[in-house]
Design goal:
The structure holds two protein chains of two kinds. By secondary structure, chain A is an alpha/beta fold. Chain A folds into two domains: about 20-70 and about 275-410, Rossmann fold, CATH 3.40.50.920; about 85-265, Thiamin diphosphate (ThDP)-binding fold, Pyr/PP domains (Rossmann fold), CATH 3.40.50. Chain A contains 15 helices and 14 strands. The termini of chain A are far apart. Residues about 1-65 and about 380-395 of chain A have low confidence and may be disordered. Chain B folds into two domains: about 95-400, Rossmann fold, CATH 3.40.50.970; about 405-445, no CATH class. Chain B contains 14 helices and eight strands. A six-stranded parallel sheet of chain B has the order 2-1-3-4-8-7, sandwiched between helices. In chain B, strands 5-6 form a two-stranded antiparallel sheet. Chain B is globular. Classes of the chains: A alpha/beta, B alpha/beta. At the A-B interface, helix 5, helix 6 and helix 7 of A face helix 7, helix 8 and helix 14 of B. Chain A: One of its GO terms (molecular function) is branched-chain 2-oxo acid dehydrogenase activity. Chain A: Keywords: Oxidoreductase.
Chain lengths: ~425, ~450
């Protein structure tokens, strides 16, 4: 599949209606955050949610013809030596290249991996490192993961590719019952910690039901594995190298909409970004926004929008590792801000936001100024933007408008 | 060796079915197995529309002009290779592996020791002393025959009814007992149900309850060994029921396409819990699937320890030298119940079980062989029975006296490190245990 961004017509969605209602209801002077904090239930006069071009450049037409987010590159840091401009799939290739160069036991395999992969993540590696190290497997996900476990048990570094996260389910048993429990059930006699499973993940616009899913929550229920999702090329390389080096089986979900859309200056040499550590991308004082993968870029825009229009100062947190996740960073932030909004693409019911919400409620109950808000996918399947009814199209987009509306309505009771 | 000949014969059948057009009727020509595999199945010739031969990339065959479906059993049943008849006499002397007396006596002692351990642990479960057990009755020949044919460095992926393999490799009775009692000596730290053994030192990967998951894993491990060029092979055991799982298909197909030095060893014991083979598959057993995957295949009499030995030995030798998978289907019979949770009389007759127990049992066949050679008599039998029983009882009683594993071990090995959330849960558990210690049998755990 190609990676063209989708272009939903914003104006005819229910979400637009919700945003419009919000705009109508809110009027008058800009609320100061002091007011919001001290008068949670009062009816505040608020500035209409009119977004300035500087805040969200592509939103000025009120129609979203491009992606539902603007990728925000990482600030350039030369900490790890020379940099090169890379998009996300190139940064993945770079990480794999570094691994194959330094670890003679490392092998990369999966469906169509040999010629470079359908998303081009393994381009050139077979020629460079040999066909016994970068190879195709038969079309069988349970086989790919099972084979990878065996490689790792026997001492190799196994990097398996599942062509789409949507197709990882045939391998669910191998991941959940086998990979995750290998070390525990053998009393540490055997393990498959050298296994990393990569899979393109998340919505891409035209992916419809089976090229759009974000199944991280299914795996988050499973002790023994790690689940990691990067937000951009710099993180993709650093986190993938950490997953490969980590002595536990890891699932590395790659936001496929970012493969080409996201471009960073990425260090050429190998480097690692620690697992199980969230990153605070923007400090704020009034509400904590948590997301991962593509949605990080959405909440970054939301933070700007909320500041601009609501006078709300948002702390933006990229969770990065879903399991085991960094409760400390999130809770510390919530203790400071008193409010939490979590957003993910996957359906809200049983989504990972539920776990975060529950933990934060347990840990930070007395610090909370408002109920925790989850703004996540609808309880339906994803579907294509083409030839679909407007209500279903909503699932494609967890927009900045919706999120900002939710911040105002749920977290600050601005009615 | 006859095993070799049978493999060759079978290969010939497959060869003729798949590649008749090659006109290679001389079997000796496709003894160059690597060439055979590559040229015979993956014939990617230059496209040429001038010849009246199919050019499809996915198959190598001739056109025919008569509508004819392939019969599922082109061959009238894959033959069962054996060395001894039911009376323990060598049928074809050239097939006799000519194993020395000590080795054969060791076979017999391991088979009977396993049988004794099974009886005692089965009874032990019945008395409520352990939680669960599954016997190996009737299948001892498949375990010992195959284990003896392997190199000790070969990695074993088992299902759960291959205890004899581990016993043959020297796993001590104390450790079998420790695992079944989940005591502090258990290498698995008391985490699994009984019979889920594992040993790093003996290259026996810890058993899991999930069926057939080990099959693609074994293929992956074999791939690692191929790359290491370490002269090691992998053997992967499973039952005919597990062979219905998708993972079995995955393992066969991956090992064939990725050319892995592996022996798939199917114990076809007639039943998957209660499901008989006629409700498990419709083809000619598991062996019939081998050719479909491009895997060298043989069917053996699993109650003939020498037949199993010969077939495994040859398959192992060739798997390593030629980097290709082999499939052995060992026909046998599960004389015991599936496990202590099962009463097999609900689905099979006493007569049927008695036939296999009394008239076609691997242990009695081997004993007949030994008696025929004058290597074993009633005196040795009595002495060994007494000794083996004492060994098992001693190990059992020792295991029962040992403490349970440390409570802390509940939290280790989930991850290589102890992540903060598990550390927190551990602290919470200790707080709870401290507060309510009188409600828990804390004294039975190792400190």
């Amino acid at each position: 599949m190609s990676l063209t961004s989708f272009s939903p017509s914003w104006s005819d969605t229910t979400a637009m209606a919700a945003a419009a209602r919000f705009l109508l209801r809110t009027a008058g002077s800009k609320a100061s955050i002091t007011n919001v904090n001290s008068c949670v239930h009062s009816k505040l006069g608020l500035t209409p949610l009119r977004v300035s071009p500087s805040c969200i450049p592509h939103a000025k037409t009120q129609k979203r013809h491009a992606a539902h987010f603007t990728f925000q590159p990482d600030p350039v840091s030369t900490k790890y030596g020379p940099m090169q401009k890379m998009n996300l799939f190139q940064s993945v290739t770079s990480a794999l290249d570094n691994t194959l160069a330094s670890d003679p036991t490392a092998v990369i395999f999966g469906e169509d991996v040999a010629f470079g992969g359908v998303f081009r993540c393994t381009v050139g590696l077979r020629d460079k490192y040999g066909k016994d190290r970068v190879f195709n497997t038969p079309l069988c996900e349970q086989g790919i993961v099972g084979f990878g476990i065996g490689l790792a048990v026997a001492g190799a570094t196994a990097i398996a590719e599942i062509q789409f996260a949507d197709y990882i389910f045939p391998a669910f048993d191998q991941i959940v019952n086998e990979a995750a429990k290998y070390r525990y059930r053998s009393g540490n006699l055997f393990d498959c910690g050298n296994l990393t499973i990569r899979a393109p993940w998340g919505c891409v616009g035209h992916g419809s039901l089976y090229h759009s899913q974000s199944p991280e929550a299914f795996f988050a229920h499973c002790p023994g594995i790690k689940v990691v999702i990067p937000r951009g090329p710099v993180q993709a390389k650093g986190l993938l190298l950490s997953c490969i080096a980590d002595k536990n089986p890891c699932i590395f979900f790659e936001p496929k909409i970012l493969y080409r859309a996201a471009v960073d200056q990425v260090p050429v040499e190998p480097y690692q970004i620690p697992l199980s550590q969230a990153e605070v991308l923007q400090e704020g004082s009034d509400v904590t926004l948590v997301a991962w993968g593509t949605q990080v870029h959405v909440i970054r825009e939301v933070a700007a929008m909320a500041q601009e229009k609501l006078g709300v100062s948002c702390e933006v947190v990229d969770l990065q590792t879903i399991l085991p996740w960094d409760t400390e960073t999130v809770c510390k932030s919530v203790v400071k801000t008193g409010r939490l909004l979590i957003s993910h693409e996957a359906p809200v019911t049983g989504g990972f936001a539920a776990e975060i919400s529950s933990t934060v409620q347990e840990e930070c109950f007395l610090n909370l100024e408002a109920p925790i808000a989850r703004v996540c996918g609808r309880r339906t399947s994803w579907t294509s933007e083409f030839s679909i009814s407007p209500p279903i199209r909503l699932n494609l987009i967890l927009s900045q408008y919706m999120l900002t509306t939710e911040i105002a309505r749920r977290l600050f009771r601005m009615h | 060796m006859a095993a070799f000949r049978v493999l060759r014969k079978f290969c010939g059948i497959r060869y003729n079915v798949i590649c008749q057009n090659k006109g290679l009727n001389d079997f000796s020509r496709h003894f160059q197995y690597r060439e055979f595999r590559i040229n015979g199945v993956l014939c990617q010739q230059t496209l040429d529309s001038s010849t009246e031969r199919p050019q499809f990339p996915g198959a190598c065959a001739d056109f025919v002009d008569r509508l004819e479906f392939i019969q599922p059993n082109v061959i009238s049943g894959i033959p069962v290779y054996r060395v001894m008849n039911r009376q323990g006499q060598i049928i074809n002397p050239s097939e006799d592996p000519q194993l020395p007396k000590e080795m054969v006596v060791n076979f017999y002692q391991k088979m009977t020791l396993l049988n004794t351990m099974d009886r005692i642990l089965y009874e032990s479960q019945r008395q409520g002393r352990i939680s669960f057990y599954a016997t190996n009755f009737g299948e001892e020949g498949t375990h010992i025959g195959s284990a003896a044919a392997l190199d000790p460095n070969d990695l074993v992926f088992g299902q759960y009814r291959e205890v004899g393999v581990l016993m043959y490799r020297g796993f001590p009775l104390e450790l079998f007992m420790a695992q079944c009692h989940a005591n502090a000596d258990d290498l698995g730290k008391g985490r699994q149900m009984p019979v889920h053994y594992g040993s790093k030192d003996l290259n026996f990967v810890t058993i899991s309850s999930t069926l057939a998951t080990q099959i693609p894993q074994a293929a992956g491990a074999a791939y690692t060994m191929k790359r290491e060029n370490s002269n090691r092979a992998v053997i992967c055991y499973f039952g005919e029921g597990a062979a219905s799982e998708g993972d079995a298909h995955a393992g066969f197909n991956f090992s064939a396409t990725l050319e892995c030095p592996i022996i798939f060893f199917c114990r076809n014991n007639g039943y998957a819990i209660s499901t008989p083979t006629r409700e498990q598959y419709r083809g000619d057993g598991i062996a019939a699937r081998g050719p479909g995957y491009g895997i060298m295949t043989i069917r053996v009499d699993g109650n003939d320890v020498f037949a199993v030995y010969n077939a495994t030995k040859e398959a192992r030798r060739r798997a390593v030298t030629e980097n290709q998978p082999f499939l052995i289907e060992a026909m046998t019979y599960r004389v015991g119940h599936h496990s202590t949770s099962d009463d097999s009389l609900a689905y099979r007759s006493v007569d049927e079980v008695n036939y296999w127990d009394k008239q076609d049992h691997p242990i009695s066949r081997l004993r007949n062989y030994m008696t025929g050679r004058g290597w074993w008599g009633e005196e040795e039998e009595q002495a060994w029975r007494k000794e083996s029983q004492e060994q098992v009882m001693q190990a059992l009683e020792y295991a029962e006296r040992q403490p349970k594993p440390q409570i802390e071990l509940l939290f280790t090995d989930v991850y290589q490190e102890l992540p903060p959330h598990l550390e927190k849960q551990k602290q919470a558990m200790w707080r709870h245990l401290k507060q309510y210690k009188e409600h828990y049998p804390l004294s039975i755990y190792e400190k």
